[in-house]
Known about the structure:
PyrdxlP-dep_Trfase_major; aminotransferase; EC 4.4.1.13; four-stranded antiparallel beta sheet; Aspartate Aminotransferase, domain 1; 2 domains; alpha/beta; seven-stranded mixed beta sheet; Aspartate Aminotransferase, domain 2
Amino acid sequence: xxxxxxxxxxxxxxxxxxxxxxxxxxxxxxxxxxxxxxxxxxxxxxxxxxxxxxxxxxxxxxxxxxxxxxxxxxxxxxxxxxxxxxxxxxxxxxxxxxxxxxxxxxxxxxxxxxxxxxxxxxxxxxxxxxxxxxxxxxxxxxxxxxxxxxxxxxxxxxxxxxxxxxxxxxxxxxxxxxxxxxxxxxxxxxxxxxxxxxxxxxxxxxxxxxxxxxxxxxxxxxxxxxxxxxxxxxxxxxxxxxxxxxxxxxxxxxxxxxxxxxxxxxxxxxxxxxxxxxxxxxxxxxxxxxxxxxxxxxxxxxxxxxxxxxxxxxxxxxxxxxxxxxxxxxxxxxxxxxxxxxxxxxxxxxxxxxxxxxxxxxxxxxxxxxxxxxxxxxxxxxxxxxxxxxxx
Length: 392
């Protein structure tokens, strides 16, 4: 299998959201990849269609998913879980809302280490919850957790959303960091929603460590959300997994979670099962391509936008770029959309810490990634060189 090198016109013709939601732009905002999916996924969906298995989900299909998820966790992360600990849900955001509604007390605040994934900000207000932002500390070569600020935000008990790998900064947490977080959570009587959706997309030099494995306390106070949707580019098939490492949580979900799990789609279940069991070779090739893109982006930014702040992601295909040095206003993504024809995410959507930044999806053909940076540089250079308007 060779990673396909589609052109922008071909990608628009395919009809994905990233390439059609904002016409006549280069799509690099929402987390969709431009490379299709694994052959094993195609085969599983073809078999489902041949059988016309468009019924309610049969028990055997769910059993296969649970077993495949447990196999995937053991093989990929050294995490031994029982299939019975796995529940199917439509997507990670549904799992997030279930965590808030079913596993935290009314009024419990939700704590986000920012910059954070945009929808994390939208769900808590729907549940009547306060959001507390704890900005990450940017160092010369990485990102650190502000432990005292995190402890203060969780004082009295709260729900910490721990995204690992961390969207949008691409941080992959080390064991010592996770252990320190778990001690703070335990000391404050808090809970953790561990979003590990990007876990299969970790690059050489880093290793994904499931949060629930770092201590007995972490296992007891957390629920983990997984999905094949990012690694295998199947978010529209609507299947994610919640992993319960606390027996009381598992029993509560079995009693009250039917409304959550029932919306999981059968095509997503069979696609995920096939991806976890048979998609390894395809994923390895994809990771190699994304790793090269990661290096290419760093080189392009250094050459064309040398004042941009950027650390290559250790995990995920999301890149986080600081454009504050170029003074593009409160919405640099809007400036680049209007001036360069690029659809990016405005960093401010990721919290107050994201002001002046943009989020870029690098899961695109190398030529497209190159054109994105070239257009950014040309638009910014043109803005800086433009004469001042004497009427202003």
